[in-house]
Amino acid sequence: MNTLKNNLLLTIYVLLLFVGAAHAQAHKYGPVEKDFAAYLFAYFSNNDPEGEQVRYAVSLDGINYEPLNGGKQILSSDSISLKKGVRDPHILRSEDGKYFYMVLTDMRSSEGWQSNDGIILLKSTDLQHWEHTAIDFPTRFPSLEGFDRENLHAVWAPQAIWDEKAQKYMIYYSIGRHDWAYAVDEHIQPYFKLYYSYANADFTDITEPQPLFDFGSAAIDGDIVYDSKNEEYVLFFKDEGRSTINNGFRTRNGVMRATGKSLTGPYIAEYRHLNFDQQPVEGSSVFKLINADEYVLMYDCYTKGYYQFGKSTDLKNFTFKQNTSTGGNFTPRHGSVIPITRRELLALTEKWGLPTGFDLPAPKNNPILEGYYADPDILYAEKTKKYYLYPTSDGFTSWSGTYFKTFSSDSLMDWADEGVILDLKKDVSWADRNAWAPCIIEKKIKKNKYKYYYYFTAAQKIGVAVAKDPTGPFVDSGKPLIDFKPEGVKGGQEIDPEVFYDPKTKKNYLYWGNGYFAVAELEKDMISIKKNTIKVMTPDHTFREGVTVFYRKGLYYFLWSEDDTRSENYRVRYAYSKSAIGPLTIPEDNLILAKDPTKGIYATGHNSVLQIPGTDEWRIVYHRFDRPNGINMGRAAGYHREVCIDAMEFLPDGTIKKVEPSL
């Protein structure tokens, strides 16, 4: 019976890991919603050749925008377009957070509305430098019936969206052909349908066009948003021909809505216009406001020279908010909006200038990293005179991450992403899952020569990798360093390493353990241990995991985490000793870091400690639940964590003052 039970539990565990790994494929490397502070609007400005260029504007509320670069172009059409003109920029952040993509209409309208036969794909890592591919449809799809140069009327207004099911980016656009036509008010109009393709992995090519939506007349300017409440896709589009009653007026050329359960359709249209008056509009774009359950609908009032904005909580009913002005250096035409972080906003304004009267959002202190990270270890590197953070990459279902990153800073305030330094899938032969809780130590080998020993958890074992620089590349030793339990230990896991150099004895130690706390002296090679020195040091019943060790004024301090990382009561306690291997003295009140519900701060734990070089100033670096959403996530809060830094102080007798977790 026990065997069957164990086999069942093992099967469930493997399935959970498999599911977690599947989720991990789409995990974001970069910022998530909690990190966003502003909005970026990409647009073009008018039908002149000088106006058909990409421009940027920024906003703090999603409604009121100020142009960058004085309203001038930020990207020249001449450098990316076959027709030497671009329109309708649609911008998005990649699903994994590593890139930005933009798709555009390749067109110069001064050559006529039938002058374009293709689209442009753009890719960037910083919103400033773009790689481009222009796709001419008759050239790319010569055997596709009806898409030849003579018959193709236009390819307009491409947009892109991540298809979760296909695990690809779907590019969708309007196509008009001369062999499609219909009569409106006794005039023959080109018939437009929405089509879609899939982009390749490099975002440099697309698959053959496939039908997406046929409105029965002219449907252009599609914009798809997923409605998570109703579990359906909502397609906003311009009705180019039908007459529809709207607020008592009979209108044409308005924004309409269609819905479908699948991204690729079919979509069922609702016969009502969403725009706020009877004038013609186009180029609708809908986006979610940051950290709010509200959406903005924006569209181009192209006969009036301004944009209109409205808001909605249900993606069905929108309330008018305001128009843009019709003068000055901000006259947007058909564009789109994405949320950006304060760091990204600063980079853009450093490049193109801060608009007059535009106030930057206040600096963000805690959390200090954009995205989900946990179990931070911190290092001041003598080689570079910079600080480095080494966290667990978080946000993966059931802690199923497979890679490690590092971040650098000169100030402990602004942190630069240095990228992936160790990928279990590529760099480690003995484990490929559960990349957790690293730590690092710098060793001076000779003058101006250093080595960095990086200890990490993988598949509930502890390994070590070595590099010549704090940002790598790190080379794994080829085998686990700790894959066994110390003698006498029955439960727990072999995770959460901590490396420490004893300034008194000149020895190096490795500490580890979940459910127990063990130590062993490291050999001189730093990649193996002296097994005869293994000692169990578990302080008391509050010890769970995440030990960190440091030395100050003759005392060795040992900090650890109590409770479970999924619990809002995850917190830090400590002991001290006169030796790096104990015995430990536990102060009567040894709780030094805990939740603060008044600030919405929960699950403060798994920390490291930093001494500011040359001072007696100290910092504690730890993770907490994602704020403000984590407390409502249930079990998932345990793998949606963020990294924080706060001051840590000592009383005259050497005891640690309780840390006030801050925002």
Automatic annotation (TrEMBL):
Pfam family of the protein (one): Glyco_hydro_43
Top-level division of the source organism's lineage: Bacteria
GO molecular function: hydrolase activity
Keyword Protein biosynthesis in record: no
Gene3D superfamilies on file: Glycosyl hydrolase domain, family 43
InterPro entries on file: Glyco_hydro_43, Glyco_hydro_beta-prop_sf, Glycosyl_Hydrlase_43_Enz
Signal peptide positions (record): 1-24
Keywords, alphabetical: Carbohydrate metabolism, Glycosidase, Hydrolase, Polysaccharide degradation, Signal, Xylan degradation
Family per similarity comment: Belongs to the glycosyl hydrolase 43 family.
Designated name of the protein: Glycoside hydrolase
Organism: Sphingobacterium pedocola
